[in-house]
């Protein structure tokens, strides 16, 4: 790395807080090394109130681009010169590309799930999707699935206010010609939930339920009749690697190859951002091998991200 830095090296980074355990610098710098790209990626601690200054710094330092994580994603979206369709609907940005001082905000979170499903041979096109949750990750997934041609997305959430926000976004998408059918239901409507999953093609958990250590061993699906052989089950949680939802799905008729955990989402949303920065494909296979090696050596990269999220959620 030190011999690679020159007078022409471009800077990229991630803004958010807490940030010191972020796995992003390892992922991006690995990919820059792989291609011999003259860029370097660092993590910058940034509170929401500091986001505008950080964007000014991006322009001033001619940074190539940046990722944005909690709690700065919405503030970033409010201060972009341009927004991608997904970022505009979601109202949150996790990737910024700097084109000569013009900052364009993208949101690759939902794309992370769509590309990971694709990596597992599954497409969201024409599929009936049941989505658990209406928070940040869920909203991004809802929008991306709708933009990518899902037949329907039925959102189930614990509280009504987040559902109303999701519905507002859905209405905006409809107005702009997105044809996906969107429905919004409360998780307390248990029979409807079971029936919708039984008739659905893909079930996605985008809540924090099931995540270690706070709610490991929990699942929002308590009626095992919901699972069926053709159902794809996707859990955004990556710690533990196999959640209760995934175990229940496997034990109740879903095919093993159709049950997917959230590690790939992390990787693919990064791969999508990498493509936006460089126009190149992130070397995902090599990166996966490298991450597995780090895990074996006892210095896991993704584990660090989990620690960071734990701190955030415990605040
Ligand atoms: P958020 O706080 O915006 O949303 C949390 C969601 O979980 C809300 O819909 C909330 O209603 C729901 N929820 C929480 N506890 C619940 C309970 N007991 N019963 C029912 N619903 C409950 O958070 P977020 O940013 O959307 O993240 C959600 C999860 O997704 C987190 O666990 C996060 O780690 C994970 N995530 C994974 C990736 C990845 O790359 N794999 C990326 C982003 C987020």
UniProtKB/TrEMBL annotation:
<comment type="pathway">
    <text>Metabolic intermediate biosynthesis; chorismate biosynthesis; chorismate from D-erythrose 4-phosphate and phosphoenolpyruvate: step 4/7.</text>
</comment>
<comment type="function">
    <text>Involved in the biosynthesis of the chorismate, which leads to the biosynthesis of aromatic amino acids. Catalyzes the reversible NADPH linked reduction of 3-dehydroshikimate (DHSA) to yield shikimate (SA).</text>
</comment>
<dbReference type="Pfam" id="PF01488">
    <property type="entry name" value="Shikimate_DH"/>
</dbReference>
<dbReference type="GO" id="GO:0009423">
    <property type="term" value="P:chorismate biosynthetic process"/>
</dbReference>
<feature type="domain" description="Quinate/shikimate 5-dehydrogenase/glutamyl-tRNA reductase">
    <location>
        <begin position="122"/>
        <end position="210"/>
    </location>
</feature>
<feature type="domain" description="SDH C-terminal">
    <location>
        <begin position="264"/>
        <end position="285"/>
    </location>
</feature>
<dbReference type="GO" id="GO:0004764">
    <property type="term" value="F:shikimate 3-dehydrogenase (NADP+) activity"/>
</dbReference>
<comment type="similarity">
    <text>Belongs to the shikimate dehydrogenase family.</text>
</comment>
<dbReference type="InterPro" id="IPR041121">
    <property type="entry name" value="SDH_C"/>
</dbReference>
<feature type="binding site">
    <location>
        <begin position="22"/>
        <end position="24"/>
    </location>
    <ligand>
        <name>shikimate</name>
    </ligand>
</feature>
<dbReference type="Pfam" id="PF08501">
    <property type="entry name" value="Shikimate_dh_N"/>
</dbReference>
<dbReference type="GO" id="GO:0008652">
    <property type="term" value="P:amino acid biosynthetic process"/>
</dbReference>
<comment type="subunit">
    <text>Homodimer.</text>
</comment>
<feature type="domain" description="Shikimate dehydrogenase substrate binding N-terminal">
    <location>
        <begin position="14"/>
        <end position="96"/>
    </location>
</feature>
<feature type="binding site">
    <location>
        <position position="109"/>
    </location>
    <ligand>
        <name>shikimate</name>
    </ligand>
</feature>
<protein>
    <recommendedName>
        <fullName>Shikimate dehydrogenase (NADP(+))</fullName>
        <ecNumber>1.1.1.25</ecNumber>
    </recommendedName>
</protein>
<keyword id="KW-0560">Oxidoreductase</keyword>
<comment type="pathway">
    <text>Aromatic compound metabolism; 3,4-dihydroxybenzoate biosynthesis; 3-dehydroquinate from D-quinate (NAD(+) route).</text>
</comment>
<feature type="binding site">
    <location>
        <position position="269"/>
    </location>
    <ligand>
        <name>shikimate</name>
    </ligand>
</feature>
<dbReference type="InterPro" id="IPR006151">
    <property type="entry name" value="Shikm_DH/Glu-tRNA_Rdtase"/>
</dbReference>
<feature type="active site" description="Proton acceptor">
    <location>
        <position position="73"/>
    </location>
</feature>
<feature type="binding site">
    <location>
        <position position="262"/>
    </location>
    <ligand>
        <name>NADP(+)</name>
    </ligand>
</feature>
<dbReference type="InterPro" id="IPR013708">
    <property type="entry name" value="Shikimate_DH-bd_N"/>
</dbReference>
<dbReference type="GO" id="GO:0030266">
    <property type="term" value="F:quinate 3-dehydrogenase (NAD+) activity"/>
</dbReference>
<dbReference type="InterPro" id="IPR036291">
    <property type="entry name" value="NAD(P)-bd_dom_sf"/>
</dbReference>
<feature type="binding site">
    <location>
        <position position="69"/>
    </location>
    <ligand>
        <name>shikimate</name>
    </ligand>
</feature>
<feature type="binding site">
    <location>
        <position position="236"/>
    </location>
    <ligand>
        <name>NADP(+)</name>
    </ligand>
</feature>
<keyword id="KW-0057">Aromatic amino acid biosynthesis</keyword>
<dbReference type="GO" id="GO:0050661">
    <property type="term" value="F:NADP binding"/>
</dbReference>
<dbReference type="GO" id="GO:0019632">
    <property type="term" value="P:shikimate metabolic process"/>
</dbReference>
<feature type="binding site">
    <location>
        <position position="238"/>
    </location>
    <ligand>
        <name>shikimate</name>
    </ligand>
</feature>
<keyword id="KW-0521">NADP</keyword>
<dbReference type="InterPro" id="IPR046346">
    <property type="entry name" value="Aminoacid_DH-like_N_sf"/>
</dbReference>
<dbReference type="InterPro" id="IPR011342">
    <property type="entry name" value="Shikimate_DH"/>
</dbReference>
<feature type="binding site">
    <location>
        <begin position="133"/>
        <end position="137"/>
    </location>
    <ligand>
        <name>NADP(+)</name>
    </ligand>
</feature>
<dbReference type="Pfam" id="PF18317">
    <property type="entry name" value="SDH_C"/>
</dbReference>
<dbReference type="GO" id="GO:0009073">
    <property type="term" value="P:aromatic amino acid family biosynthetic process"/>
</dbReference>
<dbReference type="InterPro" id="IPR022893">
    <property type="entry name" value="Shikimate_DH_fam"/>
</dbReference>
<feature type="binding site">
    <location>
        <position position="94"/>
    </location>
    <ligand>
        <name>shikimate</name>
    </ligand>
</feature>
<keyword id="KW-0028">Amino-acid biosynthesis</keyword>
